[in-house]
Amino acid sequence: MEEKEFIRAVSERTGLSRQEAADLTRATLETLAHRLSAGEAQDLTTELPEALAASVRRGATEDIEPFGWDETVTRVAERNMLKNEEADRGVRAVLVTLRETISDKEFGDLMSQLGNEFSGPIASEG
What we know:
The longest helix has 18 residues, at 84-101. Helix 2 (18-33) crosses helix 5 (69-80) and helix 2 (18-33) crosses helix 6 (84-101). By secondary structure, the chain is mostly helical. The protein has helices spanning 3-14, 18-33, 38-45, 50-59, 69-80, 84-101, 104-114, 116-122. The model has no long low-confidence stretch (mean pLDDT 92). Helix content is 75%, strand content 0%. It is globular, with a radius of gyration of 13 Å.
């Protein structure tokens, strides 16, 4: 999936404009990268379009930050001046779109690092 298609999918799932969806996607990927090991962040970048991979690289850190779903939503909301409900819907949309974009193995690896708290919110999304 190309970057434009990814952003379009997030926009359609959230009801946000394409620009808002692009900003939200970048913020979500950067925020999620804080939770990933360096190896997992690198693996993820190999399966994403370059502009999205760059967001993961920008967010990657040497030390994994152990924050959960609510903190992820709060960080994305603050970066994009969104209400928490909008950011929650947006983070879900980005994860669902990732599930459609990257390989099953890579998505499984990603979710194993994010944890069950992240699997639940997207289980019924599609």
